[in-house]
């Protein structure tokens, strides 16, 4: 079973700054079947990125995903106040396990 | 507009049973795989189970296999999770989530409900 590790655990930044979040898999991810979700307190997760780099419908272009194999990155080019949240990566596509990473919290510095 | 609304979460004693429901609207329900995902308050997300669009294929996480049963009623546009032999570690917010692609099992989730809280405590 593939395990996902996210780093850092917490990222403290100011609005307008760039956020770089990492998701690392214990084995190569087939076909880059990796998604990113954003979750705010008291809310359901929201899909941001699928296929490692494709933005979901309605997601602003300040969010971008990259990576392949075992190393993936979510970048928020300029943080807006509404972007402070927890971000999860997730495997899908190759087995019915849908593993989530432990999450990275982006909070206001 | 796609909507998923969970219900059925309550406080239940260890060893007890509970059935969660998820009412879905705004899409052709019988074309999509659906999932249950749970989250211990303040913790991360854990995938629990999936059911295929016609109900013929189900999968479970090891942590709930043999205790939980997922089902669906395509006439009622509803998803269910029967939870038996509940343990304290099953305490969590339970979300239903929709697969993003019709007639596919293993895709990412594009819509989620807001969750229903299950508390297992004596």
Helices and strands, with pairings:
The complex is a heterodimer of chains A (109) and B (122).
Chain A: E1 4-7, E2 10-13, E3 19-25, E4 34-39, E5 46-50, E6 54-55, E7 63-68, E8 71-76, E9 86-91, E10 104-108
Parallel strand pairs in A: 2-10
Antiparallel strand pairs in A: 1-3, 3-8, 4-5, 4-9, 5-6, 7-8, 9-10
Chain B: E1 3-7, E2 11-12, E3 18-25, E4 34-39, E5 45-51, E6 58-60, E7 68-73, E8 78-83, E9 92-99, E10 109-112, E11 116-120
Parallel strand pairs in B: 2-11
Antiparallel strand pairs in B: 1-3, 3-8, 4-5, 4-9, 5-6, 7-8, 9-10, 9-11
What percentage of the residues of chain A does DSSP assign to strands (E)?
A: over 45%
Distance between the termini of chain A: 36 Å
Task: Using the alpha-carbon principal axes, give the shape of chain A.
Answer: globular
**Rounded mean pLDDT score of chain A:** 95
Find the biggest chain interface.
Answer: A-B, 25 and 21 residues
Pairing-aware structural class of the strands and helices of chain A?
mainly beta
**Spatial strand sequence of the major β-sheet of chain A:** 2-10-9-4-5-6
Total DSSP E strands of chain A = 10
Shape of chain B: globular
Judged by helices, strands and strand pairing, the structural class of chain B is: mainly beta
Mean pLDDT of chain B: 97
Query: SSE string of chain B, helix = H, strand = E?
Result: EEEEEEEEEEE
Quote the beta fraction of chain B: over 45%
Low-confidence segments of chain A, ≥5 residues, pLDDT <50?
A: none
Radius of gyration of chain A: 13 Å
Q: Please state the oligomeric state of the protein chains shown.
A: heterodimer
Distance between the termini of chain B: 40 Å
User: What about the largest sheet of chain A?
Assistant: 6 strands, mixed
- Largest sheet descriptor of chain B: 7 strands, mixed
